[in-house]
Write a structure and sequence with these properties.
Helix content is 38%, strand content 13%. It has 531 residues and is an alpha/beta fold.
Length: 531
């Protein structure tokens, strides 16, 4: 969840850059012997080819990423914990490959996951809060973690996040947690990485892992992805299991891929989209899932496509408008037909959304905590913990969202029921469905973000004329893919492709064609390269 009111630093000095480069070349020159495999910006396909050719093993790759994290992440602070079993897992996967067993395209591929996702191993699951540091290890893996393990992924570690997925205070600094501190944007390190999947966004942008997993309630995948210059996929709610993920709200929560390319996002979503008996949303009759989303990737995917342009998001920031206008010209050049659209319910259901989130947060978090079995079993317990430990948990901002949520009643309350009904009607019936169906559109595009703001631990996220378009797909539960395109003064700007329920295949087709035509991803300039 991004900050409710605002959407919710190695700055490149020569001496600092030189030190980082020298350190990095010492610890991660290559995988083995004289091999000089380029790890920076490596795709799943690159790593897969390296393992197939014998140029590198899964253990070599995992070790190189861990060394890269050691060299670079002290400046970014994206990782909250490394997996002490990562190299052993990779070694076992190498044995499987040697015996002819390859589980999936993710076999041996390093992944980082957000620290609100349960792992039944030697890592903690805390949502960034000191309140859960001493909680028992979860009894079982989150649904998506079990799927990643089955696919042969190597869990490198967990990423920092905005504490409690940025749902504790209206004045928070995105990317800050009591346990992990402040994550920084890899492009300019005194800038915010956006929340709440800030650590995953920063880590993937800095090539600290091949791919990563974030979670979103409203903007927490697409915002850090776009602001950190990577691809982010917020799937249809129910495509991906939420079991074992510390919740905000069951009507909007989902996990999703955060990667440097659309193809890698398709590979990762293929690995984690599946039914789960612990998550009823994955078993609804209308659910449409694919085993392989890469089959929809088409360089000519924009040709003949009819795309809506969400003009409600223009006029907020002229520099962002200029970037998006250029993106639209690229789409037209590739054969897309563009149609201007306006949302009749634009900015009319923000209060209702927040009301729903408050109610569901209390109910869903209490359920999670009671099943976790730790000392703190309710939201009220967490509020007391924060007060008792305010010097560590609340040195910069408070917990007014926690307190507001605790005051809410059960999910049978008429206030909740009416707010939920309003959200569904305005985001779906009168929102995305009306625009998509009424104009016979394949998708709708909008700016994912504006240029990110300075990290501010005094006033919190200031927004700086922020432009964000996550609300309609978030509240409706529909899919959203952000793709890197341009920059405002070296700060990344993404383009969002929104669609109807279960329309991920269509969005992947469009997003991939756009990515291939524009090649908008550019790595952060300060990062060292292999020599």
């Amino acid at each position: 969840m991004t900050n409710n009111t605002s959407r919710r630093t190695f700055i490149g000095t020569a001496a600092g850059a030189g030190a980082a480069l020298m350190m990095h070349n010492k610890v991660a020159r290559g995988f083995s012997g004289n091999s000089r495999f380029e790890l920076e910006e490596a795709t799943v396909g690159n790593l897969k080819s390296a393992m197939e050719s014998g140029e590198a093993s899964a253990k070599d790759i995992a070790k190189a990423y861990l060394e890269r994290i050691k060299a670079i992440d002290p400046k970014i602070n994206s990782m909250i914990e490394l997996n002490p079993e990562a190299l052993a897992i990779a070694e076992e996967l190498d044995k499987e490959r040697a015996s002819g067993q390859v589980r999936s395209p993710m076999h041996g591929i390093p992944v980082v996951i957000k620290d609100n996702i349960d792992t039944a191993d030697k890592m903690k699951t805390t949502a960034g809060s000191l309140a859960l540091v001493d909680a028992p290890v979860p009894r079982e893996d989150a649904g998506i973690v079990a799927q990643l393990r089955e696919a042969g992924a190597v869990l490198l570690g967990k990423t920092n996040l905005s504490e409690w997925a940025n749902f504790r205070s209206n004045d928070s600094s995105s990317g800050w947690s009591g346990r992990g501190g402040q994550t920084r944007n890899p492009y300019i390190l005194d800038r915010n990485p956006c929340g709440s999947s800030s650590g995953t966004g920063a880590a993937i942008s800095a090539s600290l892992a091949a791919v990563g997993i974030g979670t979103e309630t409203d903007g927490s995948i697409v915002c850090p992805s776009s602001i950190c210059g990577i691809v982010g996929v917020k799937p249809t709610v129910g495509l991906v299991s939420r079991s074992g993920i510390i919740p905000i709200a069951h009507t909007q929560d989902t996990a999703g891929p955060m990667t440097r390319t659309v193809e890698d996002a398709a590979i990762l979503l293929s690995a984690i989209s599946g039914e789960d008996s612990r998550d009823s949303a994955t078993k609804v009759p209308a659910r449409k899932a694919e085993n392989d989303y890469t089959k929809f990737l088409d360089k000519a995917g924009l040709k003949g496509a009819r795309i809506g342009v969400a003009r409600d998001y223009w006029g907020r920031n002229e520099k962002v408008d200029a970037v998006l206008d250029e993106a639209l010209e690229s789409m037209k050049k590739e054969g897309a037909e563009l149609v201007d659209v306006k949302f009749e319910t634009f900015r009319q259901f923000g209060d209702a959304e927040f009301e729903v989130l408050l109610y569901e947060f209390k109910a869903d978090l209490n359920k999670y905590l009671s099943n976790r079995g730790g000392k703190h079993k309710t939201l009220a317990d967490l509020i007391r913990f924060n007060e008792d430990n305010k010097d560590k948990e609340m040195p910069y901002f408070g917990q007014e969202i926690f307190i507001s949520a605790e005051e809410k009643g059960p999910l049978t309350s008429s206030e909740y029921v009416q707010a939920l009904k309003k959200c569904g009607m305005m985001s779906r019936d009168q929102g995305l469905d009306a625009a998509l169906n009424g104009n016979k559109l394949d998708a709708i595009v909008a700016p994912s973000n504006g240029p990110t703001w300075m990290i501010d631990l005094v006033s919190g996220d200031c927004g700086s004329g922020y432009v964000g378009s996550s609300q309609f797909p978030a509240v409706s539960g529909y899919p959203n893919i952000t793709v890197p395109f341009g920059f405002v003064k070296e700060l990344p700007i993404g383009v969002s492709f929104m669609g109807g329920a279960w329309q991920e295949p269509k969005l992947f087709k469009l997003a991939y064609a756009f990515e291939q035509a524009t090649k908008g991803r550019k790595k952060p300039k300060y990062l060292p390269t292999y020599v």
